[in-house]
Amino acid sequence: MPLTQQDLDREIAAARADAPPSPHPPRDYPPYRSSALRHPHRAPVVVRGDDPDLVELHTPVFGPADVTELDSDLTRQHRGEPLGERITVSGRVLDSRGRPVRGQLIELWQANASGRYAHRRDRHPAPLDPNFTGLGRALTGDDGGYRFTTVKPGAYPWRNHENAWRPAHLHFSLFGTAFAQRLVTQMYFPGDPLLAYDPILQSVPEAAARERLVAAWDHGLTVPEFSLGYRWDIVLDGPSATWTEEGR
Amino acid sequence: MTSLPPTPSHTVGPFYGYALPFPGGGEPAPPCHPDTVTVHGYVYDGAGEPVPDALLELWQAGPEGEIPGAPGSLRRDPATGRHPGRDGVEFTGFGRVATGADGHWAFRTLVPGARGGHAPYLSLCLFARGLLHHLFTRVYLPDLPGQGSAQAEAQTRDPLLASLDEERRGTLVAAAEPRTGTFRFDIRIQGEKETVFLDFH
Ligand SMILES: [Fe+3]
Question: From ligand 1's centre to the CA of A186, what distance in Å?
Protein backbone atom coordinates (compact mmCIF):
# COMPACT_ATOMS: atom_id res chain seq x y z
CA MET A 1 0.00 0.00 0.00
CA PRO A 2 1.50 3.37 -0.93
CA LEU A 3 2.32 5.70 1.89
CA THR A 4 -0.10 8.56 2.36
CA GLN A 5 0.76 12.11 3.26
CA GLN A 6 -0.36 11.33 6.83
CA ASP A 7 2.16 8.49 7.02
CA LEU A 8 4.76 10.88 5.70
CA ASP A 9 3.88 13.56 8.24
CA ARG A 10 4.47 11.00 11.01
CA GLU A 11 7.81 9.98 9.50
CA ILE A 12 8.85 13.62 9.21
CA ALA A 13 8.02 14.21 12.88
CA ALA A 14 9.94 11.07 13.90
CA ALA A 15 12.97 12.00 11.84
CA ARG A 16 12.92 15.51 13.33
CA ALA A 17 12.90 14.13 16.86
CA ASP A 18 16.00 12.06 16.03
CA ALA A 19 17.94 14.64 14.08
CA PRO A 20 20.89 16.37 15.70
CA PRO A 21 20.58 20.14 15.31
CA SER A 22 22.11 21.15 12.01
CA PRO A 23 21.50 23.80 9.39
CA HIS A 24 21.81 21.09 6.71
CA PRO A 25 19.61 18.05 6.15
CA PRO A 26 20.87 14.67 7.29
CA ARG A 27 21.85 12.55 4.29
CA ASP A 28 19.99 9.62 5.85
CA TYR A 29 16.40 10.85 5.77
CA PRO A 30 13.76 8.10 5.46
CA PRO A 31 10.84 10.37 4.47
CA TYR A 32 12.75 11.15 1.26
CA ARG A 33 12.61 7.67 -0.24
CA SER A 34 15.44 8.12 -2.71
CA SER A 35 17.91 8.79 0.09
CA ALA A 36 17.72 5.20 1.41
CA LEU A 37 20.46 3.75 -0.80
CA ARG A 38 22.20 7.03 -1.51
CA HIS A 39 23.66 8.09 1.81
CA PRO A 40 26.96 6.86 3.25
CA HIS A 41 26.78 4.68 6.36
CA ARG A 42 30.07 6.01 7.64
CA ALA A 43 30.63 9.50 8.96
CA PRO A 44 32.65 11.76 6.67
CA VAL A 45 36.34 12.10 7.49
CA VAL A 46 36.98 15.60 8.78
CA VAL A 47 39.73 17.57 7.05
CA ARG A 48 40.91 20.66 8.89
CA GLY A 49 40.40 23.68 6.69
CA ASP A 50 43.35 25.71 7.94
CA ASP A 51 45.88 24.76 5.28
CA PRO A 52 45.90 26.90 2.13
CA ASP A 53 47.68 24.06 0.31
CA LEU A 54 44.36 22.21 0.29
CA VAL A 55 42.96 22.33 -3.23
CA GLU A 56 39.44 22.49 -1.74
CA LEU A 57 40.18 25.88 -0.16
CA HIS A 58 40.43 27.35 -3.65
CA THR A 59 37.81 27.45 -6.31
CA PRO A 60 37.34 27.60 -10.06
CA VAL A 61 37.34 31.05 -11.58
CA PHE A 62 34.49 32.19 -13.78
CA GLY A 63 34.54 35.30 -15.91
CA PRO A 64 32.38 37.49 -18.11
CA ALA A 65 32.90 35.17 -21.09
CA ASP A 66 31.26 32.34 -19.15
CA VAL A 67 27.88 34.08 -19.07
CA THR A 68 26.01 36.45 -21.31
CA GLU A 69 23.72 39.27 -20.32
CA LEU A 70 20.67 37.30 -21.45
CA ASP A 71 21.52 34.34 -19.24
CA SER A 72 20.02 36.03 -16.18
CA ASP A 73 16.75 36.86 -17.94
CA LEU A 74 14.89 33.60 -18.47
CA THR A 75 11.99 35.42 -20.11
CA ARG A 76 14.07 36.60 -23.08
CA GLN A 77 15.74 33.41 -24.20
CA HIS A 78 13.16 32.60 -26.88
CA ARG A 79 11.28 34.59 -29.51
CA GLY A 80 8.04 34.87 -27.56
CA GLU A 81 7.06 35.62 -23.99
CA PRO A 82 6.84 32.64 -21.65
CA LEU A 83 3.54 31.93 -19.91
CA GLY A 84 3.20 32.60 -16.21
CA GLU A 85 3.68 35.22 -13.57
CA ARG A 86 6.91 37.14 -14.20
CA ILE A 87 9.13 37.51 -11.17
CA THR A 88 12.39 39.24 -10.27
CA VAL A 89 14.53 37.31 -7.78
CA SER A 90 17.44 39.19 -6.30
CA GLY A 91 19.73 38.98 -3.31
CA ARG A 92 23.32 38.71 -2.17
CA VAL A 93 25.69 35.79 -1.81
CA LEU A 94 27.74 36.08 1.40
CA ASP A 95 30.17 33.92 3.31
CA SER A 96 29.46 33.12 6.92
CA ARG A 97 31.39 36.22 8.00
CA GLY A 98 29.04 38.36 5.99
CA ARG A 99 31.56 39.17 3.30
CA PRO A 100 30.25 39.32 -0.27
CA VAL A 101 31.19 36.49 -2.62
CA ARG A 102 32.25 38.43 -5.72
CA GLY A 103 32.38 37.41 -9.35
CA GLN A 104 31.29 33.85 -8.72
CA LEU A 105 28.91 31.74 -10.75
CA ILE A 106 25.25 31.24 -9.83
CA GLU A 107 23.21 28.79 -11.86
CA LEU A 108 19.44 28.52 -11.66
CA TRP A 109 17.09 25.95 -13.14
CA GLN A 110 13.38 25.48 -12.70
CA ALA A 111 10.08 24.08 -13.98
CA ASN A 112 7.87 26.29 -16.13
CA ALA A 113 4.70 28.00 -14.90
CA SER A 114 2.80 24.72 -15.28
CA GLY A 115 5.25 22.72 -13.19
CA ARG A 116 7.01 20.97 -16.06
CA TYR A 117 10.75 20.79 -16.66
CA ALA A 118 12.25 21.05 -20.13
CA HIS A 119 13.81 17.66 -19.43
CA ARG A 120 13.09 14.61 -21.55
CA ARG A 121 12.48 12.43 -18.53
CA ASP A 122 9.92 14.74 -16.91
CA ARG A 123 6.66 12.99 -17.89
CA HIS A 124 4.34 15.17 -15.82
CA PRO A 125 1.45 15.78 -18.23
CA ALA A 126 1.54 19.55 -17.87
CA PRO A 127 2.28 21.62 -20.98
CA LEU A 128 5.76 22.46 -22.08
CA ASP A 129 6.26 26.12 -22.96
CA PRO A 130 8.11 26.70 -26.23
CA ASN A 131 9.17 30.08 -24.92
CA PHE A 132 10.67 28.87 -21.67
CA THR A 133 13.62 26.62 -20.95
CA GLY A 134 14.13 27.49 -17.31
CA LEU A 135 17.88 27.84 -17.20
CA GLY A 136 19.75 30.89 -15.93
CA ARG A 137 23.30 31.90 -15.10
CA ALA A 138 24.86 34.97 -13.56
CA LEU A 139 28.05 36.19 -11.97
CA THR A 140 27.75 37.89 -8.60
CA GLY A 141 28.61 41.58 -8.48
CA ASP A 142 31.06 43.41 -6.23
CA ASP A 143 28.54 43.39 -3.40
CA GLY A 144 27.81 39.69 -3.94
CA GLY A 145 24.53 40.67 -5.57
CA TYR A 146 22.62 38.78 -8.23
CA ARG A 147 19.35 39.32 -10.04
CA PHE A 148 17.27 36.98 -12.19
CA THR A 149 14.16 37.70 -14.20
CA THR A 150 12.01 34.62 -14.74
CA VAL A 151 8.49 33.24 -14.26
CA LYS A 152 7.14 31.69 -11.10
CA PRO A 153 7.41 27.91 -11.44
CA GLY A 154 4.38 25.70 -10.86
CA ALA A 155 4.11 23.02 -8.18
CA TYR A 156 4.48 19.50 -9.53
CA PRO A 157 3.65 15.97 -8.42
CA TRP A 158 6.33 13.37 -7.72
CA ARG A 159 6.27 9.77 -6.63
CA ASN A 160 7.80 9.89 -3.19
CA HIS A 161 4.46 8.89 -1.64
CA GLU A 162 0.80 8.98 -2.57
CA ASN A 163 -0.29 12.42 -3.78
CA ALA A 164 3.12 13.98 -3.17
CA TRP A 165 3.59 17.51 -4.51
CA ARG A 166 6.70 19.65 -4.59
CA PRO A 167 6.04 23.26 -3.64
CA ALA A 168 7.06 25.82 -6.28
CA HIS A 169 10.84 26.16 -6.13
CA LEU A 170 13.89 27.40 -7.98
CA HIS A 171 17.00 25.21 -8.02
CA PHE A 172 20.22 27.14 -7.32
CA SER A 173 23.87 26.14 -7.70
CA LEU A 174 26.55 28.35 -6.14
CA PHE A 175 30.30 28.60 -6.02
CA GLY A 176 31.99 30.42 -3.15
CA THR A 177 35.58 31.43 -2.57
CA ALA A 178 36.50 27.79 -1.89
CA PHE A 179 35.36 24.53 -3.48
CA ALA A 180 34.53 23.44 0.10
CA GLN A 181 31.80 26.13 0.10
CA ARG A 182 29.99 24.64 -2.90
CA LEU A 183 26.22 24.71 -2.48
CA VAL A 184 23.29 23.30 -4.42
CA THR A 185 19.92 24.15 -2.93
CA GLN A 186 16.35 25.25 -3.64
CA MET A 187 14.47 28.50 -3.02
CA TYR A 188 10.79 28.52 -2.09
CA PHE A 189 8.06 31.16 -2.15
CA PRO A 190 6.47 32.67 0.97
CA GLY A 191 3.00 31.54 1.97
CA ASP A 192 3.01 28.35 -0.09
CA PRO A 193 0.70 25.85 1.67
CA LEU A 194 2.73 22.94 0.26
CA LEU A 195 5.83 23.84 2.27
CA ALA A 196 4.60 22.01 5.35
CA TYR A 197 4.08 18.77 3.41
CA ASP A 198 7.32 18.59 1.48
CA PRO A 199 9.86 16.05 2.76
CA ILE A 200 12.67 17.81 0.88
CA LEU A 201 12.20 21.13 2.69
CA GLN A 202 11.23 19.37 5.92
CA SER A 203 14.48 17.38 5.83
CA VAL A 204 16.19 20.49 7.22
CA PRO A 205 16.00 19.96 11.00
CA GLU A 206 15.96 23.55 12.26
CA ALA A 207 12.88 25.70 11.66
CA ALA A 208 15.01 28.84 11.32
CA ALA A 209 17.15 27.11 8.70
CA ARG A 210 14.07 26.04 6.73
CA GLU A 211 12.90 29.65 6.77
CA ARG A 212 16.18 30.69 5.18
CA LEU A 213 15.15 28.73 2.09
CA VAL A 214 11.99 30.79 1.68
CA ALA A 215 12.38 34.06 -0.22
CA ALA A 216 10.88 37.27 1.14
CA TRP A 217 8.32 39.27 -0.76
CA ASP A 218 10.03 42.57 -1.61
CA HIS A 219 7.77 45.22 -3.05
CA GLY A 220 10.82 47.31 -3.90
CA LEU A 221 11.99 44.63 -6.33
CA THR A 222 8.76 44.55 -8.28
CA VAL A 223 9.18 46.06 -11.73
CA PRO A 224 6.19 48.29 -12.55
CA GLU A 225 3.91 46.81 -15.20
CA PHE A 226 6.24 43.82 -15.49
CA SER A 227 7.21 41.53 -12.60
CA LEU A 228 6.73 40.71 -8.91
CA GLY A 229 9.74 40.91 -6.62
CA TYR A 230 11.32 38.43 -4.21
CA ARG A 231 14.49 38.81 -2.19
CA TRP A 232 16.64 35.84 -1.28
CA ASP A 233 20.08 36.11 0.31
CA ILE A 234 22.37 33.09 0.34
CA VAL A 235 25.06 32.31 2.91
CA LEU A 236 27.77 29.78 2.08
CA ASP A 237 29.52 27.91 4.86
CA GLY A 238 32.74 25.94 4.84
CA PRO A 239 36.30 27.15 5.20
CA SER A 240 38.14 29.33 2.71
CA ALA A 241 41.78 30.17 2.12
CA THR A 242 41.10 33.77 3.12
CA TRP A 243 40.13 32.61 6.59
CA THR A 244 43.52 31.02 7.02
CA GLU A 245 45.31 34.06 5.73
CA GLU A 246 43.59 36.03 8.45
CA GLY A 247 44.95 33.58 11.02
CA ARG A 248 41.77 31.70 11.71
CA MET B 1 33.05 38.42 14.39
CA THR B 2 29.71 38.12 12.70
CA SER B 3 28.72 34.57 11.92
CA LEU B 4 25.79 34.21 9.60
CA PRO B 5 23.95 30.90 9.64
CA PRO B 6 24.33 29.10 6.32
CA THR B 7 21.71 28.45 3.68
CA PRO B 8 20.82 24.75 3.91
CA SER B 9 21.76 22.32 1.16
CA HIS B 10 19.15 20.46 -0.91
CA THR B 11 19.33 17.64 -3.41
CA VAL B 12 20.17 18.47 -7.03
CA GLY B 13 17.02 16.46 -7.91
CA PRO B 14 16.46 14.42 -11.06
CA PHE B 15 16.08 17.22 -13.62
CA TYR B 16 19.35 19.15 -13.58
CA GLY B 17 20.45 17.38 -16.76
CA TYR B 18 19.46 20.14 -19.17
CA ALA B 19 20.91 22.81 -16.90
CA LEU B 20 24.22 21.94 -15.30
CA PRO B 21 26.25 19.70 -17.64
CA PHE B 22 27.94 21.65 -20.43
CA PRO B 23 29.77 20.73 -23.64
CA GLY B 24 33.35 19.87 -22.84
CA GLY B 25 32.52 19.55 -19.15
CA GLY B 26 34.35 16.23 -18.96
CA GLU B 27 37.43 17.58 -20.73
CA PRO B 28 39.36 20.00 -18.56
CA ALA B 29 42.60 19.11 -20.41
CA PRO B 30 43.31 21.51 -23.25
CA PRO B 31 42.64 19.73 -26.57
CA CYS B 32 45.47 17.43 -27.71
CA HIS B 33 47.56 18.21 -24.64
CA PRO B 34 50.25 15.49 -24.65
CA ASP B 35 49.94 14.80 -20.91
CA THR B 36 46.21 14.17 -20.92
CA VAL B 37 44.98 11.28 -18.77
CA THR B 38 41.54 9.73 -18.50
CA VAL B 39 40.07 9.20 -15.05
CA HIS B 40 36.81 7.29 -15.14
CA GLY B 41 34.57 4.99 -13.17
CA TYR B 42 31.08 4.17 -12.00
CA VAL B 43 28.92 5.51 -9.19
CA TYR B 44 27.14 2.77 -7.19
CA ASP B 45 24.39 2.98 -4.60
CA GLY B 46 23.98 0.90 -1.44
CA ALA B 47 22.48 -2.01 -3.40
CA GLY B 48 25.47 -2.04 -5.74
CA GLU B 49 23.35 -0.64 -8.56
CA PRO B 50 24.80 2.05 -10.81
CA VAL B 51 23.52 5.58 -10.18
CA PRO B 52 22.37 6.93 -13.54
CA ASP B 53 21.53 10.44 -12.39
CA ALA B 54 24.57 11.60 -10.46
CA LEU B 55 26.56 14.71 -11.26
CA LEU B 56 30.28 14.86 -10.60
CA GLU B 57 32.43 17.95 -10.40
CA LEU B 58 36.19 17.92 -10.62
CA TRP B 59 38.47 20.60 -9.21
CA GLN B 60 42.24 20.26 -9.12
CA ALA B 61 45.65 21.86 -9.22
CA GLY B 62 47.63 22.08 -12.43
CA PRO B 63 50.70 19.97 -13.28
CA GLU B 64 53.01 22.07 -11.09
CA GLY B 65 50.64 22.09 -8.15
CA GLU B 66 49.45 25.57 -9.07
CA ILE B 67 45.86 26.63 -8.50
CA PRO B 68 44.40 27.41 -11.92
CA GLY B 69 43.29 31.02 -12.05
CA ALA B 70 41.90 31.16 -15.55
CA PRO B 71 38.21 31.47 -16.33
CA GLY B 72 36.75 29.89 -19.43
CA SER B 73 35.16 26.62 -18.35
CA LEU B 74 31.71 27.41 -19.71
CA ARG B 75 32.09 30.08 -22.37
CA ARG B 76 28.89 31.37 -23.90
CA ASP B 77 28.42 33.10 -27.19
CA PRO B 78 26.62 36.43 -26.66
CA ALA B 79 25.26 36.40 -30.22
CA THR B 80 23.64 32.99 -30.20
CA GLY B 81 23.55 32.18 -26.49
CA ARG B 82 25.13 28.86 -27.41
CA HIS B 83 27.94 27.25 -25.57
CA PRO B 84 31.04 27.16 -27.74
CA GLY B 85 32.92 25.09 -25.17
CA ARG B 86 36.08 25.84 -23.33
CA ASP B 87 38.45 28.45 -24.64
CA GLY B 88 40.70 25.68 -25.92
CA VAL B 89 43.90 26.99 -24.37
CA GLU B 90 43.69 27.54 -20.65
CA PHE B 91 43.55 24.79 -18.08
CA THR B 92 40.80 25.89 -15.69
CA GLY B 93 41.05 22.90 -13.35
CA PHE B 94 37.27 22.51 -13.33
CA GLY B 95 35.14 19.82 -14.89
CA ARG B 96 31.55 18.63 -14.59
CA VAL B 97 29.88 15.50 -15.97
CA ALA B 98 26.64 13.65 -15.41
CA THR B 99 26.75 9.86 -15.12
CA GLY B 100 25.31 7.90 -18.00
CA ALA B 101 22.45 5.40 -17.82
CA ASP B 102 25.03 2.83 -16.66
CA GLY B 103 26.38 5.06 -13.89
CA HIS B 104 29.60 5.72 -15.79
CA TRP B 105 31.55 8.99 -15.88
CA ALA B 106 34.90 10.10 -17.29
CA PHE B 107 37.18 13.12 -17.14
CA ARG B 108 40.05 13.78 -19.52
CA THR B 109 42.39 15.97 -17.58
CA LEU B 110 46.00 16.71 -16.60
CA VAL B 111 47.85 14.97 -13.79
CA PRO B 112 47.90 17.40 -10.86
CA GLY B 113 51.10 18.40 -9.07
CA ALA B 114 51.63 18.29 -5.31
CA ARG B 115 50.89 21.20 -2.99
CA GLY B 116 52.75 21.51 0.29
CA GLY B 117 52.92 18.23 2.16
CA HIS B 118 49.98 16.73 0.29
CA ALA B 119 50.19 14.05 -2.34
CA PRO B 120 48.67 15.25 -5.63
CA TYR B 121 44.95 14.61 -5.91
CA LEU B 122 41.80 15.46 -7.81
CA SER B 123 38.97 16.83 -5.70
CA LEU B 124 35.53 15.45 -6.58
CA CYS B 125 32.10 16.69 -5.52
CA LEU B 126 29.18 14.30 -6.00
CA PHE B 127 25.56 15.37 -6.39
CA ALA B 128 22.57 13.10 -7.01
CA ARG B 129 18.86 12.73 -6.69
CA GLY B 130 18.35 11.22 -3.24
CA LEU B 131 21.45 12.91 -1.86
CA LEU B 132 20.30 15.86 0.25
CA HIS B 133 23.81 17.21 0.77
CA HIS B 134 26.63 16.72 -1.75
CA LEU B 135 29.66 14.57 -0.94
CA PHE B 136 33.33 15.46 -1.34
CA THR B 137 35.97 12.88 -2.06
CA ARG B 138 39.43 12.76 -3.64
CA VAL B 139 41.13 10.74 -6.35
CA TYR B 140 44.80 9.94 -5.82
CA LEU B 141 46.57 8.49 -8.84
CA PRO B 142 48.87 5.45 -8.75
CA ASP B 143 52.36 5.29 -10.26
CA LEU B 144 52.60 3.91 -13.76
CA PRO B 145 54.67 0.76 -14.28
CA GLY B 146 58.28 1.70 -14.96
CA GLN B 147 57.80 5.29 -13.84
CA GLY B 148 59.12 5.04 -10.31
CA SER B 149 57.19 5.35 -7.08
CA ALA B 150 56.83 9.09 -6.59
CA GLN B 151 53.06 8.96 -6.13
CA ALA B 152 53.20 6.05 -3.70
CA GLU B 153 55.86 7.80 -1.64
CA ALA B 154 53.94 11.07 -1.56
CA GLN B 155 50.82 9.12 -0.59
CA THR B 156 52.48 7.52 2.45
CA ARG B 157 53.21 11.02 3.73
CA ASP B 158 49.84 12.53 2.78
CA PRO B 159 48.04 13.68 5.95
CA LEU B 160 44.62 12.42 4.88
CA LEU B 161 45.73 9.05 3.49
CA ALA B 162 48.04 8.45 6.45
CA SER B 163 45.10 8.94 8.82
CA LEU B 164 43.07 6.12 7.21
CA ASP B 165 43.37 2.38 7.62
CA GLU B 166 44.52 0.50 4.57
CA GLU B 167 41.13 -0.66 3.37
CA ARG B 168 39.60 2.79 3.54
CA ARG B 169 42.69 4.40 2.03
CA GLY B 170 42.30 2.10 -0.95
CA THR B 171 38.96 3.65 -1.85
CA LEU B 172 40.72 6.93 -2.66
CA VAL B 173 43.44 5.60 -4.95
CA ALA B 174 42.55 5.01 -8.59
CA ALA B 175 43.71 1.87 -10.40
CA ALA B 176 45.93 2.07 -13.49
CA GLU B 177 44.31 0.31 -16.44
CA PRO B 178 46.20 -1.52 -19.18
CA ARG B 179 45.73 1.38 -21.59
CA THR B 180 48.41 3.90 -20.61
CA GLY B 181 47.09 7.04 -19.02
CA THR B 182 43.73 5.58 -18.09
CA PHE B 183 42.74 5.28 -14.44
CA ARG B 184 39.68 3.70 -12.89
CA PHE B 185 37.98 5.16 -9.84
CA ASP B 186 34.62 3.81 -8.70
CA ILE B 187 32.52 5.63 -6.13
CA ARG B 188 30.47 3.53 -3.72
CA ILE B 189 28.06 5.79 -1.88
CA GLN B 190 27.05 3.24 0.75
CA GLY B 191 27.94 -0.13 2.19
CA GLU B 192 30.84 -2.45 1.57
CA LYS B 193 33.97 -0.69 0.31
CA GLU B 194 32.16 2.61 0.83
CA THR B 195 34.24 5.46 -0.57
CA VAL B 196 35.81 7.81 1.97
CA PHE B 197 33.93 11.11 1.91
CA LEU B 198 35.26 14.31 3.37
CA ASP B 199 33.99 17.18 5.46
CA PHE B 200 35.98 20.41 5.64
CA HIS B 201 36.00 22.39 8.90
FE1 LIG C 1 12.58 20.59 -8.86
Answer: 8
